[in-house]
Amino acid sequence: MAEQQPDAASPSRTGGDLPMQEVPPQPVSLRINGKTYSFMLEPRVTLLDALREVVRLSGTKKGCDRGQCGACTVLVDGQRINACLTLAIMQEGREITTIEGLANDHGLHPMQQAFLDCDGLQCGYCTPGQICSAVALLEEVKAGQASAIDPRKAADAASLSDEEIRERMSGNICRCGAYPNIVAAIRMAAGASR
């Protein structure tokens, strides 16, 4: 007996696939880089896609889209997150800071300047995520958060070893291999923030 094939319009029952339900756009209000943006957004849109495609802040990069490379790292209430792994609608009421929001009227953020001074980039694709992650790293140390390398609280960012900086930055991948200069930039910014 011939196996029956499902219609293109009917869902396959063998694989548990169900048709995607259409979800109407919802009102979303996000506070990004000190400014409030309100728009209608389909609830399944990631924060990364909202930043890039809706708000048009292209500094946050889409790398792997799986939370493995760190190119999409942004700060939410001062904590680093992968924007590709969270839904935009989940970030309502929180302060989102992208690479564009780090600089101010007085110039670049000290971490941005350190990356330039230490040549902490090559192609530059991962750099926005690297910088946001490095800014959060210094804040984590200031707050006394331990790391996997050293479970004790770090005294201050200037006392971090290169190994600990690398471990704390391990969620951010640089395909060009600018790691020594990235570590130097973080060390320089740590000294500037003292």
From TrEMBL:
Domain 2Fe-2S ferredoxin-type: 26-102
InterPro entries recorded: 2Fe-2S-bd, 2Fe-2S-bd_dom_sf, 2Fe-2S_ferredoxin-like_sf, 2Fe-2S_ferredoxin-type, 2Fe2S_fd_BS, Aldehyde_Oxdr_Iron-Sulfur, Beta-grasp_dom_sf
Keywords: 2Fe-2S, Iron, Iron-sulfur, Metal-binding, Oxidoreductase
Region span, Disordered: 1-27
Pfam families with a match to the protein in the record: Fer2, Fer2_2
Family matches, as SUPFAM superfamilies: 2Fe-2S ferredoxin-like (SSF54292), CO dehydrogenase ISP C-domain like (SSF47741)
A GO molecular-function descriptor: metal ion binding
Protein name in the entry: Xanthine dehydrogenase YagT iron-sulfur-binding subunit
Species, as recorded: Noviherbaspirillum humi
The organism's taxonomic lineage, starting at the top: Bacteria, Pseudomonadati, Pseudomonadota, Betaproteobacteria, Burkholderiales
